[in-house]
Specification:
The mean pLDDT is about 65. The chain is mostly helical and about 40 residues long. It is globular. The chain starts with a helix and ends with a helix. It is about 65% helix and about 0% strand. The chain has three helices and no strands.
């Protein structure tokens, strides 16, 4: 799975509704070098 797919999947979980914001930040930090291009474009 690509980083974009993982991020997309995390933001599309209405059944969960309680996605830890910390986990998202950890994922962002982990793939910082790759997603930074997507964020700052």
């Amino acid at each position: 799975m690509t980083v974009f797919s993982i991020t997309k999947q995390m933001f599309q979980q209405p059944q969960s509704g309680t996605i830890p914001f910390g986990e998202i930040m950890l994922l962002m930090a982990f793939f910082n070098k790759r997603i930074s291009a997507l964020i700052y474009v």
